[in-house]
């Protein structure tokens, strides 16, 4: 049975889950584990997550907050209860800004308000806002394609750009940008009609090393995450495909947003300090068999 227990390291407090030990006695934790875990701490850092009102973005916001970060979100819609309860649960500061990431004006206004409210602090940015359209390649029309690229590619790129400028200006020593790509940038999604979406996520993955290279001189790392099938509003439109998605994964299930949260916290934290320009696939093995 899985137990959870806490490690206190300096001012940092961590929750570990282990199937091996039922002990919550911190004396029994080896010092090397404590020092490793301290590298996952985001205590005192400030994060911005776009698309954080629900789904994967909300899970990322919650994971970053649990690790100690203050978290702001940009979204077109008001956040779910899971965001509103973060402050009370984790004792960090949160804020929601109504922003359409596909609009340069809205993004600039959002960043302006965020900078004022958080005294220009920013260490972590997770551009996660994204949309999909279920249409055949032969019928996909220009307007829908433009809208999709406006959010998934241009919105993500310019969020990362404004975040990087803010990180350079505030001189953070812990700058980390985690772009949200997709398994759909690695393979065609067998059950869905999403050629434009695959292309948009391919763009995210392709821009990642190039941005990483340019931001390395400022000590800002840039990586991407490619989730597989995750149970969110985006995939809720395809209930008839759930069984097929389960059988496509080596582990026989689709992911909950919390299943990909850990990869985001890892990439945001000093635990991944030697990683930049990389993509981390969290897909239950779908792309590997
Ligand atoms: N669900 C999956 O299986 C899956 C798999 C791989 C990648 N992803 C990616 O993860 C990210 C989150 O997807 P999700 O599954 O949580 O979907 P979701 O629809 O539940 O959440 C997306 C969020 O982005 C917000 N958003 C959309 N357009 C926006 C805009 N223009 N400006 C600001 N906010 C906007 C939405 O309001 C919503 O809160 C997306 O980039 C998606 O492509 C999802």
From TrEMBL:
Pfam families, alphabetized: adh_short_C2
Example of a GO biological process term: secondary metabolite biosynthetic process
This protein's UniProt keywords: NADP, Oxidoreductase
Molecular function in Gene Ontology: oxidoreductase activity, acting on NAD(P)H, oxygen as acceptor; oxidoreductase activity, acting on the CH-OH group of donors, NAD or NADP as acceptor
Gene3D superfamilies in alphabetical order: NAD(P)-binding Rossmann-like Domain
Domain of life: Eukaryota
Family per similarity comment: Belongs to the short-chain dehydrogenases/reductases (SDR) family.
PANTHER family: BENZIL REDUCTASE, CHAIN DEHYDROGENASE, PUTATIVE (AFU_ORTHOLOGUE AFUA_4G08710)-RELATED
Name of the molecule in the record: Lung carbonyl reductase
